[in-house]
Design brief:
By secondary structure, the protein is an alpha+beta fold. It has helices at about 5-15, 75-95; strands at about 25, 40-45, 50-55, 55-75, 105, 110-115, 120-135. It comes from Thalassobacter stenotrophicus DSM 16310.
Length: about 140
C-alpha cells in the first residue's frame, strides 16, 4: 500500500496530465528532445519536518515538490511559457485538495531560466515550487 505522500504526488502528476499535449514525467532525467508543446517533470522534493499533534497521533506535512517545465520555440517561447504557467495554475486551482487526498495544494511563482541551444529553436525552462499540505498517522509521510 503506498504512503500518503506517494498517493498525493501521484494524484498531482495525474492532475497535471490533464493539460493537453504536454507530457508529464515523474522524477525522470531530462530527455534529449523536448516535445513541441513542452514538457513537465514532477520532482518529489522534500516533505520537511512535520508538525505533530498527539491525540490522535498525527503528522502534519508541508511537503515541497518541484515542477520543472520546459518549452521550445524559435519565435514565441515566452508566450508558450506563460501559457503553460497559466494552465498549470488553472488545473491546480480547480482541484486544490486533489479530490480530498490532501488539505491544500499551493503553487508558487515560476522561476524562469532562458536556455540557449544550437539551432533555430531555443528553450525556456522554469521551476514551480508546489507545497502540498497534508496530515497522516505515518511519521514517514
Amino acid at each position: 500500500m503506498p504512503t500518503t505522500r506517494e498517493t498525493i504526488l501521484t494524484a498531482l502528476a495525474d492532475l497535471l496530465r490533464t493539460i493537453p499535449h504536454v507530457p508529464v514525467l515523474r522524477g525522470e532525467v531530462l530527455p534529449e528532445r523536448i516535445p513541441p508543446a513542452g514538457l513537465m517533470i514532477l520532482r518529489d522534493g522534500t516533505p520537511g519536518e512535520p508538525g505533530v499533534t498527539l491525540s490522535p497521533l498525527t503528522y502534519h506535512f508541508q511537503h515541497r515538490a518541484e515542477l520543472e517545465m520546459i518549452v521550445r520555440s524559435a519565435t514565441d517561447r515566452d508566450a508558450l511559457f506563460d501559457a503553460l504557467v497559466a494552465q498549470i495554475g488553472a488545473v491546480i486551482t480547480a482541484d486544490r485538495t486533489l479530490r480530498g487526498l490532501c488539505d491544500w495544494v499551493e503553487p508558487e511563482a515560476a522561476e524562469p531560466v532562458d536556455l540557449p541551444v544550437e539551432g533555430a529553436a531555443s528553450l525556456k525552462a522554469g521551476i514551480i515550487p508546489i507545497t502540498l499540505h497534508y496530515a497522516t498517522s505515518d511519521a514517514l509521510g
